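Lecture 7, part B: from sequences to assemblies.

Below are the input chains for today's worked example.
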Amino acid sequence: MKLSDSSEDPLINRITDRLVQRDDVLVGPGDDCAVVTLPSGDLQLLKTDCVVEGVHYNPDENAERVGWKAIARVVSDIASMGGTPHAFVVTLVLTPDTAVEWLDALYIGMQKCAETFRLSIVGGETSSSPNGSANVISVAGTGHVHPSRLVLRCTGKVGDAIFVTGRLGGSLSGKHLDFTPRIQPAQWLVKNFKPNAMMDLSDGLAKDLPRMANTSGVSYAVDRSAIPCSDNCTITQALSDGEDYELLFTLSPELVGQLESDWPTDFPPLTRIGCIKDISHSPTQLEGGWEHFSDL
Amino acid sequence: MKLSDSSEDPLINRITDRLVQRDDVLVGPGDDCAVVTLPSGDLQLLKTDCVVEGVHYNPDENAERVGWKAIARVVSDIASMGGTPHAFVVTLVLTPDTAVEWLDALYIGMQKCAETFRLSIVGGETSSSPNGSANVISVAGTGHVHPSRLVLRCTGKVGDAIFVTGRLGGSLSGKHLDFTPRIQPAQWLVKNFKPNAMMDLSDGLAKDLPRMANTSGVSYAVDRSAIPCSDNCTITQALSDGEDYELLFTLSPELVGQLESDWPTDFPPLTRIGCIKDISHSPTQLEGGWEHFSDL
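Predicted structure of the full complex, as structure tokens:
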């Protein structure tokens, strides 16, 4: 059996099922970040991600934007757990015919993102790959989170309202390279209106909301007409384009009114798109979303 | 200019020079691991590395051995700083035609290494790459180190004796896949005979000893005939094959006699190969070592 014969989630379950976690691992594979307890008792977030030439960016793309994206994707995952990014490491796997100037620009973009979010790129590794291979930029990062502010994706509760930040869809028109990870709204949320569950939207709402519901053991009802679409995007695009890097979160219904009135005007728009239902409820059909091994 | 026109070290300096570190970064790029101060004041080691199909393993290689290697390389770097591995994350970049059974075996090997060294693989990311690309397994790991046991590579002192553990060369006969990271000897050393400088041998003694000397601002004299060669290996192979994953360290001369008599018999052999000299001393010629972008 080949990877292209399997969809992504069963494949990931298959490989992570055999992993054995130490007692100090609070959250292992399956959420936006892992959460480990440090010897001091503090919680640390850990995340790894990558951008691949021909998959996450085009070969002729401005390398500075690619560098921004590579770091920002990990920042977005740390944000969605309620955390603050700290120290990042970068593995580059590049073909020998890669231009040194491309590499320079990549690092300018990475450092720009690091400065914006006050994290350090503390190290890395560089390897060659055979000419003809796709270049790969793999980024791993740590973050801190106060135990009282940690939000998982598996803890959505029946009756919760479902919200998204920003507008969805149209990532390929450029947003997938220039997005702003929602660190600020996420930190404001976990401080003031702690969501019951939260994740970042990376594979499209049609893929990510069912993931959140499945892992929470719940179902959902979504008002498709309420989904906030990017300019010139259809609802289908908003559901399935992916790479939105917006926050998807659920909130206890009694907090909804206050959240909607307190939401800062300089934040991206906030939209209530539905609510969490009991598992016996048939979820709203949301077709689409990005499948890594079969969509190529 | 292409990557293949540059040697590895200037290339790495070029990209890391522009990185700006937060004040809590004790050691940034350039050593086996980065060292960051956590909010609690504890020190954390951070390392990222990768194995690439066709570069670090052959496409028909047993995936379990590849998995072991991918984790063990990072453990080796953490060992060489005096640390203990903790939490690891794995990014896989795989072509859609990769066999699921290969992936299963890869994770069996990774988990075996994780259990052996009591670390957790806490998360990961999986991305497709275009068919025809080399598969990439990128591993990032954290470790702990007590401040009194941290050893850097840039602090070798004039007069120090230079030691290596184990036997060098011949990695391609299989050792590069099945090696044992020197966690135990490294931890014994930093506790009992703290080296002035230490690193792991990944690119061959001919490449790594000059790196240690350069960053320490010193030179060295090596007795080539003292270099411990693996069975059926010449000194040239011992100098240049790379992927030994042995410890290279320097020790104050007054500790040498005691170290040599106390070195546990169940550890790999310990060999004194030379001494650290003043920078005005011409270093012993050690030709060879692995160059990532020009040796392909």
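Note for the exam: Chain A has a mean pLDDT of 94. Keep this in mind when comparing with the next example.
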